[in-house]
Amino acid sequence: MAIAKAERLMNLALCLLGTSRPLSKRELRESIEAYLEAGSDDSFSRMFERDKDDLRELGLVIETVENLDGEVGYLARRDSNRLPPITLDAEEAAALGLAAKVWQQARLAGAASGALQKLRAAGLPEDVDPYEAHSALEPRIPVHEAAFEPLMLACRDRRPVVFDYRKATAARPETRNVEPWALECWRGHWYLAGWDRDRGAERVFRLSRITGRVRSRGTRFTAPVPDVVTVRETVSSWAGEIADRSALIRLRSGAGYPLRAKATAVRELGDGWDELEIPYGHGLDAWLVEFGPDVVVLEPAELRADVVDRLRAVAKG
Hints:
Blueprint: H1 2-18, E1 23-24, H2 25-31, H3 33-36, H4 41-57, E2 63-66, E3 72-75, H5 90-102, H6 109-122, H7 148-157, E4 161-165, E5 174-186, E6 189-196, E7 201-206, E8 210-216, H8 228-239, E9 243-252, H9 257-262, E10 265-270, E11 273-281, H10 284-289, E12 295-299, H11 301-316
Antiparallel strand pairs: 1-3, 2-3, 4-5, 4-8, 5-6, 6-7, 9-11, 9-12, 10-11
Helix pairs in contact: 1-4, 5-6
């Protein structure tokens, strides 16, 4: 049904853009097959009015003109619907080119390549190659999770979803009913922020822990969608970006560079170990587990217990 409507809207837009004079509703009905198939004049009239409003919401400027006989006609003048010329300086074009490069490892690679060709026509300098392997800037957002594309579309279309999710401390996945808000990449991992219907609260889900297929639900959102900035703050807080205290850990010498970069204090212990004081926020336990036997949590006790629980869950498979 969505494809049929999109085709009908496209045909109506082409008719209105391609005419040199206003077309009446009768003429438009005779020109578009979907309108000919309408069961009655009333159903056609309702369909046409909805389509006309949808095209206007999409930005098409449709004029309503009344001729000398009082008949109403419609047209969309090309000069009223032509986009202004887009000009980019070298820095702007290069920045957009780099943005296109980011998605070359994702399912959006085709769209990014097409956009890059348009950037070339819009002024992207030939000596700026965002795909050059030896470029000084190598932005990459790897997307290996199968859940990324269906969740991206669900966020765009404001469509609730259902998926099975395995927490780091759980041996088996649980079914989650979520109203998806946005996808965010943090420390090389993708996260979904949204409203968990079963728990009645906002939640953040790491895509690599989603198992099975993401299923859509034909219902409306029940919770308001926050501003995108608020969503990013939620993800960073949930993933451990916002810290309100400190933790003390032992780290094997020569290991854990990201932890060393975050440390507020480092002390050599000898025997191949260092002691680090690092910011402690929500999600730090999950991050520390990734370093395996190279990290030992000294304090606080609750963080140590959380890390131990996660390691035991991993050991159980």
